[in-house]
Records
---
Amino acid sequence: MLQIRNLHVSVAGKPILKGIDLDVGPGEVHAIMGPNGSGKSTLAQVLAGRSGYEVSQGSVRYLDRDLFLLPPEARARAGIFLAFQYPMEIPGVANAQFLRTALNSQHRARGEAEVDAFDFLEHVKGKLALLEMDDGFLYRSLNEGFSGGEKKRNEILQMLVLEPRLAILDETDSGLDIDALQVVARGVNAMRSPDRAIVLVTHYQRLLEHIVPDRVHVLAAGRIVRSGDRDLAMELEDKGYGWLNAGADFEEDRP
Amino acid sequence: MGNNDLQRHIDTPYRWGFVTEIEQETIPMGLDEGVIRRLSARKDEPDFMLDWRLEAYRHWLTMQEPDWATVSYPAIDYQAIHYFSAPKAGNQPRSLAEVDPKLLATYEKLGIPLNEREALAGVAVDAVFDSVSVATTFKDKLEALGIIFCPFSEAVRRHPDLVRLYLGSVVPHTDNFFAALNAAVFSDGTFVYVPKGVHCPMELSTYFRINARDTGQFERTLIIADEGSYVSYLEGCTAPQRDENQLHAAVVELIALKDARIKYATVQNWYPGDAEGRGGIYNFVTKRGDCRGDHSHISWTQVETGSAITWKYPSCILRGDNSVGEFYSVALTNHHQQADTGTKMIHIGRNSRSTIVSKGISAGRGRNAYRGLVKMLKGAEGARNHSQCDSLLMGPDCAAHTFPYIEVKNPTATVEHEATTSRIGDDQLFYLRSRGLTEEDAVNLIVNGFCKEVFKELPMEFAVEAQKLLAVSLEGAVG
């Protein structure tokens, strides 16, 4: 589904990713872990198409297409979803209005029927319940005045509504208490299916107690320095990132 | 732009050889007392009307064109304008095929029905279309309730006592340069009177008044809501109106007596000029409401997206105790448009309240200024005002200014003012695009969110159209 080959990315002339190789197949859940400044978020942003990142080498193919030829909206319409670490606030735009607009632009692009307000409510109600969000969420301005936990839940709600093929979650667990973490994990687990891939970007192992990954990759200084199964995450939890420091220099500054 | 276009328009010969009767209707360009006398005579006006016009004209001669607004334009030659004319008929396109294709594309996007497109574009339509019969039906219903809703010139002839009593009582002919000019030469407009205790059952709109077209650049509107009555009036139309006039100097007067309520909504989409700033309407308008009675209520809602220059301050005089004034505004300037708009809330009555919500959107090289006065006079015991002025900037070349003036002469009065300026951020756009919205849809969503507090004051259908209109006006503003 996703093939990343020798990906090099710089921000403002400074190299951040220095040769990433990664294969993610349908039905798989991958966790990308690493210390602050290792390039995890950069990788997530580049896949979603944020501007300001310069790809100097390498390629990314998604469903047999060159990902870098697609603007962000085309990637979304092709089934890529990024749950933001810091979701944006859009004042005056009701959550429901935004979600339905997003859903319908994806439907239109795929030649599917648009969803009217009634069908949309049907579509979204069960998902709200799963995330223990009340209906009031739909009518609040998008992320405006939401607590950190509410914003993260709202990202997961968007993912459930848009039903992407490839979901990338950028530190969705950061800043969540244990109850909220479980709710978010429940949402993500509900999305697991044989034709959908999930990439979890996280600093901590604790999310992986609730969402069990098929593969774990450790990113350090812009390279994947170790890949393994979920036991690798356990080991990291015990020994810390310093344990991996076999020659790779860790940079603490983030992009 | 400016005088050259005006001149060219004036100089345009009758290309299609119109009949002599029409030619005779034109009074030669320029302005003097003779022109005003002929104009008044042509309209069969009673003497008081002519005297009023002449008085206004004489006063106008002593006045200077104002220069305090943050707008710039070449000098207007007031002797190079036709003050009463039918040459527009000569300029009318005969079918949609003769109309600017860009204008037609916009109608298409706004979903304007075909026959209305013709009317809007100024096509000389002979066929009777639906709105004519619709208009007549409504007129009968309104008359049964005692509501007068007619062209201003008809009101002057049929209801001279009402006109005489209220005309100029809110905006006197001495008020300002453009109001004086309007008083001297106004061609037509709308008159509304709602009798005591009557709740007008429908939105009144110029759209339903078939002869609202071609009222010319000096329109005059007078709305009187008698004690305990209610009326909601919608001016304008969301489609861009083809108009050859450069200068529009309209006057609107609202009078709300005891316990009466007037809601006045405007959607203004006159020709804004092209992307390089050539052409476009100068919209210099004086609008004022008088909350004359206790517990009276006037609200202004405006969505201003058109005109090359907008100079407009719909205001409320809160004379009655416990009276309420409201101003909700969205003003959008794109390309080279300039807007200097806002309101005045003059608190005279005790416990009078006012609310101001102004949303300015600037894109391209647009310039947008909010100018507002809140005045609490000595007797305005316990009066309150809350103002909120927000500006949204798109791109590096536009500008937004806020000029709030506050004068408080009563220590118990409360005035609150909040202002914000924000820019549509790349981060916001990326967030929305990453969910599948195009950049244009993302901008529209953000802009609509920004304007929400104003749109909710509009009747539902018009709120929907206003959203579409903003989208059309902002096309190409980003990316």
---
Amino acid sequence: MSGYSVTEPSRGQKWIAGILVAGYALITILPLVWIIATGFKSSADSIAYPPKLLFQPTLEGYVNLFTTQTRQTTEYLNANPPQTWYERIVHDRGLVIAGPSRFGERFMNSVIIGFGSTFLSVFLGTLAAYAFSRFKVPLKDDLLFFVLSTRMMPPIAVAIPIFLMFRSLGLSDTHAGMILLYTAVNLSLAVWLLKGFIDEIPVEYEEAALIDGYTRFQAFYKVVLPQAATGIASTAIFCLIFAWNEYAFAVLLTSGTAQTAPPFIPTIIGVGGQDWPAVAAGATIFLLPVMVFTILLRKHLLRGITFGAVRK
Amino acid sequence: MADSMIERAAMSTPPGTARRIRGLSDRTIAWIFVSPTIFLLLAVNIFPLIWTIRLSFTNFRANRPNAEVAWVGLRNYERILTDSDIWQTMQATAHFLFWTLFFQVLIGFTLAWLINRKFKGNDLWTTIIVLPMMLSPAVVGNFWTFLYQPQIGLFNYGIAFLTGADPTSFSMIGDVALAPWAIIIVDTWMWTPFVTLICLAGLRSIPDSIYEAAECDRASNWRQFWTITIPMTLPFLMLAVLFRGIENFKMFDLVVQLTGGGPGNTTTLTSIDLKREAFEKWRTGYSSAYAIILFVTVFGLASIYVKALNKVKER
């Protein structure tokens, strides 16, 4: 009976569990696979019945996503043969490219606001988390709870006064306004997560550094920061994902210059109704980075989504 | 003069302490580090909250900033609490909350229990399962309207394939009876992995020795499950319910993209209703009172729940 353990599931059990979990996983990623696949379908294939599993892939959806088009007469089309591959795709349907669409701009807004607010919230969050972790801050528990409680407000409820505040400060529909807002929303997550990570670094390292003649500040950035690097990186990714996905504030407080991609993608319409391949193409470009980050983050995922309450 | 005294004091003390005297004191550093965060949170959270409370006693309308604002006392609160439409949205929210929590706990725990059978490749499958919850609810919700199309949607096709029904005979987001379930299905699809991950952490925290002891006492598997597995994962499960409960009470983006609150008012959750009052009808004072009522509800329910959670943890 060597090596027998009562807590180790039997082989049969493992097989059944494995098959059930794999089955669930396959069903659950089907909608995501469908988004990616639809992006490479022609409009006709995307709305075919029964739904097409095998199809001739085309970049039509991506071309529609990045350009605006106008219909032209046959004479005009014949007189102006397409120069590039993307012009040819549009040309085949009796259209010519009129110019770039707004998608690129909106995507860049998402990048600017996402990275801007992530940098700020991680910067401020690291400082606050270090202080909460190492010093006697008066009313520490109350302040920490206050930081967390700011997440309980429904965004729409906060949006009313913020809308008024932004209007009177001239921050409506600006990058600065959105960066500030997302920083404030993300700060609670950043402080709580980073405090957990910094708590895990032994105080002895800093004490040794202080005895060696470092100032408190030097000890902070030469000893603590390098130790907390992984924690800071994963906190940053969580903040980035939140800002990237945020919709409620974006749809209420931005309309043009600072509008991010989530409120924009659902409004993509082609000639005659919603252009699903273009929507799917936009969704693919927008969702893929997050999927990659999720896979990179999988070890710290649990910690991030529970504000550090559960650590593996 | 004062500087030189500090220098002299520093020179006569051991070097470590000397540097500390020259550098900023810990207390000063603590304040420098904490105050920007507190200031920003005050400016973007607490100040607006106080402003909302003030507005909630007025008839202010944000689309008419120059109109005269009258103080109306508690009338906004009175009107909200006696409005039957608002009770209907509360019911829709309660229905959504109850069933999403029910399915997510049931499926989420089952999945975690299965993954904890430690079969080969469980890490890979877990990573795949987790993907939906990290994605933008608005973008994904919008795409689900495509999957729910009666004629061409993949969801209707799948259901028709399994049950033999005509895929055009039902519309998940157009039918009054089905729409509340349409949003529950998508939310469950998205957030079940959240519960799974937390439960998995709970299951993995149970030491093997407890099961070994139970085995020595000849406790059946069934009995072990109910007397060891469930009680020991309960605090984790309750934590997952707390997070999901708060998030789904605030639910806006996913449902607004999926159904827009329709058909009729069947999927008008409180956040969607609030958005209409505040940003479409522009009844700012009224909707401020509405927002305060929602906040007090969430905060109250969460505090009671956290007390219960702490009791379970202490056991």
